Amino acid sequence: MKSGSHILIVEDNVSFRELIREVFGYLGYRVSEASNGLEGLALMESTPINLAIVDLEMPQMNGLEFTKRVKEKNPQFPVIMVTAYAASHSPAEIANAHVDAFLQKPVGVDTLINMVEQL
Fold this sequence. Notes:
Blueprint: E1 6-10, H1 14-26, E2 30-34, H2 37-46, E3 51-55, H3 63-73, E4 79-83, H4 91-96, E5 101-104, H5 109-118
Parallel strand pairs: 1-2, 1-3, 3-4, 4-5
Helix pairs in contact: 2-3
């Protein structure tokens, strides 16, 4: 993903969401935010998005359900999933959601930037 692309951050942790927004905004990306999967899907209906960074555990709709719904409409859409709770879901569940990358929190900013740039 190149600078200027539009990233959607779907994350219920306000501090982490703001950090990601500031980092990628500084790097020249356009950034939109949602606090759960339902908000993220609604944003994607009205705004062209190029990539999503999604938390696994969120209220109302978790990251797996969000990713499944996004991939049903566009299987090529890149999704990076981040979580502090990987043990609460099986590797098969995560693989079946077809995420493009999976990162365990705490994730380094450089690691996240490199992952976005690779996709």
